[in-house]
Amino acid sequence: FDDIKIQDEKEKISFEDFDFSDKLSTNYWLENFYKINWKGKHIYLFDNHNHAYYFWYLARNEWIIWDNNTLIHVDEHADTRDNNKHLLKPYTNDLEKVFNFTNNVLNVGDYIIPAQEEGIIWDIIQIRNTSNLEDYIKIKDNLSWDIILNLDLDFFQPDLDFIDYDLKKKVVLDSANKASIITVSTSPFFINQELALKVFKDIFN
Predict the structure, then answer these.
(1) What is the pLDDT of residues 50-105, one digit of tens each?
(2) What is the dihedral of CA 178, 183, 187, 192, to 10 degrees?
(3) How far apart are CA 189 and CA 149, in angstroms?
(4) Sheet with strand 34-38: strands edge to edge
């Protein structure tokens, strides 16, 4: 965990955009992507959330998961815009094609629907507010074990501090324990990266 770093070469800007106050927001990548062993399973930690798509197929290629998984999506955003593009089923077995599709076609808002259309995702449980968290607590003991936890750390950004932190952490840890793999995004545009990593380490370390 101590090796997780934000890259500090200031010329290597990941992207810039104007925020909701029309202020230019400059964002930087993580130094690397990270595969972390946690309780006998893998956490894949990366910055922009569309990369989760690639790691789901990597996990399937390694026989960690197969098709028809339940995606527990813990995020400030739904990430379910439909770009009307997806890979044909045979191509999803080619990780180079999956990699290119992830990086050149998908973005942080539209990577879930292609995975659902291709069959690796069957059901989606959206957790974006207090009501969703409480609903999860009610159904958690009835969930199957074909689960992917897909966490965006922007769910812990300060504007959402009205949602109880301990309840968020409880749900994330419960679903992480049930999941076969865990994909985690630090979302540079939506949460300060130092805060994102602080939360990540608090939950999983």
Answers:
(1) 999 999 999 999 999 999 999 999 999 999 999 999 998 889 999 999 999 999 99
(2) 60
(3) 21
(4) 34-38, 41-46, 181-185, 147-152, 69-74, 121-127
Place of tokens 């955009």: 17
Output the pTM of the full model: 0.92
122, two tokens: 């069957």
Instruction: Round to whole Å and give the CA distance between 189 and 26.
Output: 8
User: Can you list the pairs that 6-9 forms with residues at least 24 positions away whose Cβ atoms lie under 8 Å?
Assistant: 6/30, 6/31, 6/193, 6/194, 6/197, 7/31
Which tokens go with 97? Answer: 């094609």
Per-residue tokens: 40: 């006998």
Residues 174, 172, 120, 128: is their CA dihedral positive or negative? Answer: positive
Which two three-digit tokens encode residue 142?
Answer: 């009835």
pLDDT tens sequence across 7-27: 776 666 777 778 778 888 777
121 with 60: CB under 8 angstroms? Answer: no
**Residue 183, SS3 per DSSP:** strand
What is the distance between the alpha carbons of residues 174 and 171, in angstroms, rounded to a whole number? 5
**How far from chain centre, in Å, is Cα 83?**
18
